[in-house]
Amino acid sequence: MAALAPAGPGDAASAALDELSLNFTYGAPGVGNGSLSGAWYRRNQIHLFGVLLAILGNLVISISLNIQKYSHLQLAQQEHPRPYFKSVLWWSGVLLMAVGETGNFAAYGFAPITLIAPLGCVSVTGSAIISVTFLKDNLRASDLLGMTLAFAGTYLLVNFAPNITQAISARTVQYYFVGWQFLIYVILEILIFCILLYFYKRKGMKHMVILLTLVALLASLTVISVKAVSGMITFSMTDKMQLTYPIFYIMFIIMIASCVFQVKFLNQATKLYNTTRVVPVNHIFFTISAIIAGIIFYQEFLGAAFLTVFIYLFGCFLSFLGVFLVTRNREKEHLQQSYIDFGNIPDTTLGRKAWRETNVGQNTTRFK
């Protein structure tokens, strides 16, 4: 299959616009409107499938992180601990992490970015529940309140996210990729990125906000490319082959490169600052960046009512607040009480060593 039909630029643009008009379908009575009724469910089955994939993926990621933490704790109890990468339990956590990330990746092929990206709060709240249940962590009142707010926010996000079904084909991605909205957005993003990188590299300014803003700027490109790659793979499986188009490989390269540099800056942030500060701020920055990317590149709030947008943003705020409450002061608490009782171990420094090993295991990055 040829990458582009041998027609003039006007014909190619016209074909892309025709395909876009066929790809967009809106639910009645309005975009993102309605409640979880039978009619709403019938209009949003494909989106709910993506939501289910994202939620399951984030829960699997929560399990994988706690398995890796438990693996570090077990190794710390040994008189001559092995390297963590020689532990079967640790590799089991890594395998589950890959499964969870695959679920997140696939979810972008079935639902809008503005619906999938904020569901990263499920991973944080799920990890807190698992820590309390299996790793003997303390359950605090702020945890219960944070989980409740996160679940309420998730409900609002699912119910009031853009009710738009769009088949992501190569022509669709090509049309958006050269659109003036995205070009202006990329120019501004590159400019901001270079300014922040200058202060970070040349001036030695390693403030957490600078590092996580660099991560968020890269994350916006990540979610755009992830949805493009996942959408084109899904379109190839259900309709016509899209993997022969150059735009697929361009997006694939952008996805890999942006992920690699995200890991670099996020790891730097976790080395310099407590994870209890990095996790909520990174979640907020990532989600905002992803929502803006979805609005600008894929035009996911096109035609949405003001009330729908307001309730959606309120749902985001609740999820942000929930993540903050769940992670607040948790690291200080670990200093006083470890996940596992080390009281029977003669060496009292072992608990502190295990705590350090545990937090090393938490420095894992993902798409959201």
TrEMBL record:
One of its GO terms (molecular function) is magnesium ion transmembrane transporter activity. The chain crosses the membrane at residues 46-67, 88-110, 116-135, 144-162, 182-200, 209-235, 247-266, 278-298, 304-326. It is found in: Membrane. It is a multi-pass membrane protein. One of its GO terms (cellular component) is membrane. SUPFAM superfamilies: Multidrug resistance efflux transporter EmrE. Keywords: Membrane, Transmembrane, Transmembrane helix. Belongs to the NIPA family. This is NIPA like domain containing 2.
